[in-house]
Amino acid sequence: MAASNVSRKYALITGATSGFGYEFAKLFAKDGYNLVLVARNDEKLQELAADLTQTFLIEVLPIAKDLFNPSAAAEIYSETQAKGIVIDALVNNAGQGTYGLFAEYDSDRDVDMIQLNITSLVCLTKLYLKEMIARNEGKILQVASLLGKYPTPYMSVYAASKAFVVIFTEGLINELKGTQVTVTALLPGPSDTDFFHKAGAEETVTYKEEDLSNPAVVARDGFEALMNGESRIVSGIKNKVFAVMSGVMPDSALASTMEKKMRPSGEQEGRSHITHGPSIEERDRIDAATGNTDGDYQEHEDHVHTKE
């Protein structure tokens, strides 16, 4: 480790190779943080680490772990412990959804989503939060979703998992009163990432017909809220309006609204691809490696799921 970097703080970011995670990595690097970057693909992690190291003159530790695996969170923590790295900012960004009627797709996808979106997030939070409390210093960003405010047909489990993140974060904020440790929930709306592709949701009204948020803007909003110690940030004016609506409309009406947004689009034209470069690269790599152009993948051999 370079001597000039010894005193720098470290940020740990999951899901770091595309989407919001990639943008978070650049923001923290620009702010002078050393990084621990977590994602599934080691080759892409190494490329990103080399680029950030050269551009920002920081230390970057890439850790290739699959957070669908129950042991991954503890393994990540053990690796940072073994290297004597103190995590000053934790960004729980990794997450996935699955599109379809709950009763019709493989239940293994629900188990995987719960493991990734809830269990791994909770485990990483607990492991690093204990250290932050002991130091009375630290920041945690939990990437939730605007869908965490809405019952969402066709993505019922995903929305519920993000509602957990929102409520979990609020509980922690209350528990941490009187400390210098802060927890922030970021609630993005539909964004120009590979999320819809991995979820198998590219034919929805939302994807085909609506504007998508720029991942760089969403990450900047989350980063600034985290640094300011805010409890929650909804990125984007339109999304802020929807968030307010969720507090005044009955759940049945919210579910009906979301059903219209998540049903298959009748438009023959419409969006057919995303524009966020790192997310496009990840999609192309996935498709080339697996030959599967329809939905999610997992790289470990004993776990391969596709959209039903």
UniProtKB/TrEMBL annotation:
Please give the InterPro entries that the UniProt record associates with this protein.
NAD(P)-bd_dom_sf (IPR036291), SDR_fam (IPR002347)
Looking at the record, which segments are called Disordered? 256-308
Q: Which domain of life is it from?
A: Bacteria
Q: Which UniProt keywords apply?
A: Oxidoreductase
Q: Where is the composition biased (Basic and acidic residues)?
A: 258-272, 297-308
Stored CDD domains: SDR_c
Respond yes or no to whether keyword Oxidoreductase is given for this record: yes
Instruction: Give the protein family.
Output: Belongs to the short-chain dehydrogenases/reductases (SDR) family.
Please report the name of this protein according to its UniProt entry.
SDR family oxidoreductase
Q: Which organism is it from?
A: Chryseosolibacter indicus
